[in-house]
Amino acid sequence: MKKLRVLVLTHESLVPPDSLEGYTEQQINEWKTEYDVMTQLKAAGHEVRMLGLYDNLADLRAAVANWKPDVAFNLLQEFQGIITYDQHIVAYLELMRQPYTGCNPRGMMLSRDKVLSKQILSWHRIPTPQFVIFRHGHPYRLSGKLKFPLFVKSATEDASLGIAQASIVEDRAKLKERIDFIHESTRTDALVEEYIEGRELYVGVCGNDRLSTFPVWEMDFGTLPEAMAGIATRKVKWDLKYQKKHGIRTGRANGLTAADHERIGRLAKRIYRALHMSGYARMDFRMRADGSVWVLEANCNPNLAQGEDFAESAASEGLDYAGLLQRLVRLGLNYRAEWRLNGER
């Protein structure tokens, strides 16, 4: 690939330093993805600039207009502190005729809205747990539609925010308590769905029109007692000391047949297309003891840090970190946005 001007977009608090020297592991973990992407793109010979954003669209416009990057490498997960607003930044890039990496605005909107995405997947007859939505700020009555145990989470937040062992509820009293907790702590709607007991599986997907999948990955809950294992709580996902203490890790799923891998890979691609996604994504599944597979979430623009699920699953297929980032850049450069379909740049 020729050398490019790459504008890396991230939250203003996550712009990394040039060196890791003097920082603790916990500090590094906050901006590890940004550091890994920046250093690897520079090592590949690209000219890289980091742009930290909070609510400053003028800075983005100036950077694109004045520097004229070949591609914007999008690592934003929010804008103005609101998770769902990052899709508008990508839409703004399209309005500026600026190529970018990762998912398009429509795919981001559909996949980030957990309720809407589940409705779409159900229409496509893709198995997803039955659910009910409880609106924030509205009175509600508990429904008898779903069967316990149930799982309660925010309808819009990601990164396991608000998810803990208490998210699994066994009776109506605990259900009401957890719905109130989600409403009060996240200020969002509460999504209540049937809890799927089983293995936690992840599948990485890459592509715009032609799609490829990486090997099925699995969360290993290590030494956690059986009563606590089974869900990827915020502590399980992000607390490094907790992970080390209990040997929590992810790795290639063992014991699956070739037919299982093919079936799950096909399902991941169906989800990707149903939600109009592009660039790259990670699909989260549950696999019951009977072999049935249920989709939990479709995650656009998942964590790209070196050593994390997405990059490691790619590496297991022979695509190293440098190659993975180059592939994502090529996908961004080749994505056929509407302005390209009209014959422009």
What is the strand and helix layout of this fold?
Layout: E1 5-11, H1 25-30, H2 32-43, E2 47-53, H3 57-67, E3 71-74, H4 86-95, H5 105-112, H6 114-123, E4 131-134, E5 150-154, E6 168-169, H7 172-186, E7 190-194, E8 199-207, E9 211-213, E10 217-220, H8 234-238, H9 240-246, E11 249-252, H10 258-274, E12 279-287, E13 293-300, H11 309-315, H12 321-334, H13 338-341
Parallel strand pairs: 1-2, 1-3
Antiparallel strand pairs: 4-7, 5-6, 5-7, 8-9, 8-10, 8-12, 10-11, 12-13
Please tell me about this protein's structure.
- This protein has 13 helices and 13 strands.
- The chain is an alpha+beta fold and 345 residues long.
- The chain is globular and about 60 Å long.
- 36% of the residues are buried.
- The strands form three sheets. Strands 8, 9, 10, 11, 12 and 13 form a six-stranded antiparallel beta sheet that branches. A four-stranded antiparallel beta sheet has the order 4-7-5-6, covered by helices on one side.
- Helix 4 runs antiparallel to helix 5 (105-112).
- The protein folds into three domains: 5-102, Rossmann fold, CATH 3.40.50; 130-194, Dna Ligase, domain 1 (2-Layer Sandwich), CATH 3.30.1490.20; 198-334, D-amino Acid Aminotransferase, Chain A, domain 1 (2-Layer Sandwich), CATH 3.30.470.
| Count of extended strands | 13
Helix amount: 25-40%
Span between termini: 19 Å
- The CATH class label of the largest domain is Alpha Beta
Strand-pairing-aware structural class: alpha+beta
Arithmetic mean of pLDDT = 90
Number of domains: 3
| Helix-strand topology string | EHHEHEHHHEEEHEEEEHHEHEEHHH
Shape summary = globular
